[in-house]
Write a structure and sequence with these properties.
Elements: H1 9-17, H2 26-39, H3 44-57, H4 63-67, H5 71-78, H6 87-104, H7 110-115, E1 123-124, H8 138-149, H9 157-166, E2 170-171
Amino acid sequence: MCPWAVGDVLYREYHDQEWGVPQYDSRKLFELLLLEGAQAGLSWITVLRKRENYRKAFYDFDPVRMSKMTPNAIEACLKNPGIIRNRLKVNAFVTNARAYLELEATGVSFSEWIWNTVDGKPIINSFSSMEDVPVSTPASDDLSKRLKTAGFKFVGTTICYAYMQAAGLVNDHLISCYCHPKKKITL
């Protein structure tokens, strides 16, 4: 197992079942992007523990409903102890929902647009220690720039690289980890 996932059952489940697994569903990719932005400056376990509360507060990450959130709805979120009550991050959720809808209105799915970052194929890395894993790459730089140009917020290159790992665009399971693709047995 990758050392960052040791010590918490929720982390282990996330590591084993989600992290590094290619995700192609546009709505799930949107959710992950928002949650990675919410994590900025905090530990990922904090966000994982609040994920269900985020789903409830933000209409299961329905971008149409989120894009129509009123100032009163935003204020209600800021009073919700079940989420990270940071005004800039909460406002970014609404901004990002609008950017998502504008992007999809061009006729390209969010999934396709995101996966274009890696030419539609996951990057499988073979790192032997966590110290070898980068916090950003030219691909995350590019994704960050494209997202910002499209109107998204909280999408710096470090957030984008963590997002790419979470969504399976990049597989950074250590080569010693049972989740590394070279360790998996296929029948």
